[in-house]
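assembly run, all chains below
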Amino acid sequence: MTAMLELAGLEKTLNRRKVLDGLTLDVAPGKSLVIIGGSGVGKSVTIKSAIGIMRPDAGSVRIDGEDFLALDRVGRERAVRKIGMLFQGGALFDSLTIWENVAFRLLYADSVPRKEARERAVEVMRKVRLAPDFANLRPVELSGGMQKRAALARAIIGAPKLIFFDEPTTGLDPITADAINDLIVEMVKELGSAAVSITHDMASARKIADEIAMIYQGKIIWRGPARDVDASGNAYVDQFVRGSADGPIQAVV
Amino acid sequence: MTPFQQIGRATLATLREAGRFALFAGRAVAACFSPPFYLSQIWRQALQIGYFSLPVVGLTAVFIGAALALNIFVGGARFNAESFVPNIVVLGITRELGPVLAGLMLAGRVSAGIAAEMGTMRVTEQIDAMTTLSTDPFRFLVAPRVIAATLCLPLLVIVADIIGVMGGYLVATRSLDFNGAIYIRNTFNFVENADVILGLIKAAAFGFIIAAVGAYQGYNSSGGALGVGRAATNAVVASAVLILASNYLITALYVE
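ok done. output:
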């Protein structure tokens, strides 16, 4: 079966520091992979390289079998339609209402009439437990958890085959974080999409992952089923899962 | 580092920045002429840049026209040329002060606003989000601002020309004992189409500069609130300098 996402030999240097050093991973359709790792090890750069926001210095990115980096603008826009992305801070557009944010892809990329786009946006808002009453509010009028729900609705409205989640629970209280995790699991199952998440939050990782991979110094150093993460036999993974300052990983303070 | 090295480094950095801006401006122009066109965004920006700038441009023009009339009257009196006030006011406003002052006012109001708005969108990942939603930020964000500013500034300058001349008229008829009908007749007899056209060409160029510089600074900002603030400041300074430099170039080319 063709992997939904294949990253091979990715390299990226930023400010003379090698952030990605031959990173390779793949995700099968319908599977949820969570990438864990400390701050500054290249998790965000991996996702940004995969979705075309950042161009890697070397390596290849294949989405649904297509060589993403070799595509022209039109080809990329077509390939990006298979992708949804939930950004860490939500990245909702301040100047638009919640329904316009959720329906952005429909309104501006697919030229769907406003009335129909609004109806579809409200329908997806209901799926992520965001009441239609919020449709006409601006992002600044919502709480952090509500903003995450709206951003999740925006990410899934196009029924993407591949969804990226960048620190989906950062900045949320534990109860709201758990609710967002439940929603992610539910939405990914409902859509049958492949999912790639990056997080520091082990509770979140355990809940949403089929598999967990750990990134360290720009490479994947361990990968296995989520149930095995507590008995990985890898000193780096053990230290990260324990959240201990003692171990081979030096804390950056 | 020696002074020569510092000068060399600064020169290279300036050239690098100029090259980057030229590439950005070229990409912005290409985005203006290739679909999809977001007409609702162009309309929205036209309101922001054009309509909401009317008060500041109008107020600037009326005071400049009035001050110009007073100065020309005082200066002209030294060689018995007081009667040329309407002629020189209309020439000065249409060819030079209307477009330049409207441009400089919009460099402060619009270019800084574009840089701050797009800079905030950049640091909060809204521009990245747009890319993942199959929408090209150059076509959705940059092109509408460039088109709106390039089209709206000439319209604003027409308004500034009329209000500036009226400012001169008010001072001349109320304080300097000019006859109103003669003042208006002299103004229309003296001004030529070429004078107005020169002002409008300048205005279109300044509009492009204001939007392109603001968008460039905002699009490339980084480093949180500090970076956004720096982008807004840079946008005002760079727009103002480019407006004044291009003002000279356009005038020189037109005169030749």
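Residues 93 and 101 of chain A are 6 Å apart (CA to CA).

The beta strands of chain A are 5-14, 17-27, 32-36, 58-63, 66-67, 83-86, 162-166, 194-199, 211-216, 219-225.

not gonna interpret more than that til we talk
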